[in-house]
């Protein structure tokens, strides 16, 4: 089959959704499909696609109404005989309309996060312009069906897959932060990720726990605000904003604790990678967290928006090496057994085949 991914994320943005796209596109290509990735020119997404040997095309979609891009995408679909178009919700208005004029390929929407705004508009577009939805947690599927945004069984849960990174060397924190226990978090600097609560937790830990160094991998519009907030709370020297890192695995492999204080989430790729690296993880109990950590021997789940809970969990793991090692090992076995990339790719391909038969029947 010929498959086109359309994903017009901002040029400097690259997170879990983009990592999923690259993994899925490269995997489907390796399964023998002809795969293209469409996105904004000069974007990290297209750079990553090219680095993985994928064919790319530029679609610089800025709004829901763009006749020019409807024409461009429709022309590309016809010229390259695209069978399957996979896009994200924000691009569906343009890409979905283009599909109507571009040979009517199968249209799938991938939602890695629950819809947070303009629900009626997105649900209308999904039902009118797509043939199905891929999401990464049961909680999102259940939410969409409960709200009546999609009909039953229109959404398919396909869990993210992760690699072990066995051949990737570890990052050396000790040269920069000698004698410190590294608490790592990964994600763009956005309100969703709950970083203000993390900074409050560092303050609550107090100077008696200044052996912890908190490292944040990611960039975003909140950088200056978060730095100022850390200074205001008197903890600026205990949290380090590293910026965007293309490959986070070396950092994950050598940290002591991974924490993700998100206010909402799909199923975090970074958390899965930390678990695959054998690290103890602290996640807020939101959306797919309980599906990733189904019981207490695989990680710690805490309430969102709760600095005290973050501080207590960090102290618990930082003060009990045996517990940390046990949680890390159980997490590693759980992720490698239940969330391999091969399972994700097989499930995507099976879903495409199923929907193609349904569409052509």
3D architecture notes:
The chain has 361 residues and is α/β, with parallel strands linked by helices. It folds into 2 domains: 2-161 and 341-360, Rossmann fold, CATH 3.40.50.2000; 181-338, Rossmann fold (3-Layer(aba) Sandwich). Helices cover 43% and strands 17% of the residues. The chain contains 14 helices and 13 strands. The protein has helices spanning 16-30, 44-51, 67-79, 92-101, 119-129, 138-147, 195-205, 223-232, 249-254, 269-276, 289-292, 307-318, 321-338, 341-360, and strands spanning 2-6, 34-39, 55-58, 84-87, 106-111, 132-135, 155-157, 181-186, 212-217, 239-243, 257-260, 281-284, 300-302. The strands form 2 sheets. It has a 7-stranded parallel β-sheet with strand order 3-2-1-4-5-6-7, with helices on both faces. It is elongated. The mean pLDDT is 93.
Please work out how many helical segments DSSP would assign.
Answer: 14
Our measurement of the CA-to-CA distance between the termini, rounded to an integer number of angstroms, reads 18 Å
- The 3D shape can be described as elongated
Which parts are unreliable, with pLDDT below 50 for 5 consecutive residues or more? none
CATH topology of the largest domain: Rossmann fold
Helix content: 40-55%
Biggest sheet: strand arrangement: 3-2-1-4-5-6-7
Major beta-sheet overview: 7 strands, parallel
Strand content: 15-25%
- Second rung of CATH, namely the architecture of the largest domain: 3-Layer(aba) Sandwich
The total count of strands amounts to: 13
Mean pLDDT: 93
N-to-C series of helices and strands: EHEHEHEHEHEHEEHEHEHEHEHEHHH
CATH superfamily of the largest domain: Glycogen Phosphorylase B
């Amino acid at each position: 089959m010929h498959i086109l991914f359309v994903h017009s994320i901002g040029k400097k943005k690259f997170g879990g959704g983009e990592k999923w796209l690259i993994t899925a596109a490269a995997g489907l290509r390796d399964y023998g499909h002809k795969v293209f990735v469409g996105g904004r020119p000069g974007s990290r997404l297209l750079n990553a696609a090219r680095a993985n040997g994928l064919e790319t095309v530029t679609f610089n979609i800025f709004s829901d109404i763009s006749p020019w891009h409807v024409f461009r995408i429709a022309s590309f679909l016809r010229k390259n005989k695209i069978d399957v178009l996979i896009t994200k919700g924000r691009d569906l208005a343009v890409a979905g309309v283009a599909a109507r004029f571009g040979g009517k390929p199968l249209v799938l929407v991938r939602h890695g996060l629950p819809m947070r705004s303009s629900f009626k508009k997105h649900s209308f577009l999904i039902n009118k312009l797509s043939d199905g939805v891929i999401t990464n947690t049961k909680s999102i599927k259940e939410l969409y069906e409960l709200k009546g945004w999609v009909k039953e069984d229109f959404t398919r849960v396909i869990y993210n897959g992760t690699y072990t990174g066995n051949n990737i060397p570890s990052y050396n924190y000790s040269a920069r932060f000698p004698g410190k226990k590294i608490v790592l978090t990964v994600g763009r600097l956005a309100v969703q990720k709950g970083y203000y609560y993390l900074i409050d937790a560092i303050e609550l830990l107090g100077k008696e726990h200044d052996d912890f160094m908190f490292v944040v991998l990611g960039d975003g519009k909140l950088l200056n605000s978060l730095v100022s907030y850390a200074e205001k709370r008197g903890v600026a020297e205990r949290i380090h904003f590293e910026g965007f890192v293309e490959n986070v695995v070396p950092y994950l492999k050598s940290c002591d604790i991974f924490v993700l204080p998100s206010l909402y989430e799909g199923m975090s790729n970074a958390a899965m990678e930390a678990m695959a690296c054998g690290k103890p993880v602290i996640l807020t109990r939101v959306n797919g967290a309980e599906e990733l950590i189904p019981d207490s021997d695989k990680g710690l789940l805490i309430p969102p928006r709760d600095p005290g809970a973050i501080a207590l969990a960090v102290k618990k793991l930082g003060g009990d090496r045996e517990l940390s090692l046990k949680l890390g090992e159980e997490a590693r076995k759980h992720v490698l057994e239940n969330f391999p990339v091969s399972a994700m790719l097989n499930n995507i391909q099976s879903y495409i085949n199923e929907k193609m038969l349904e569409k052509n029947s």
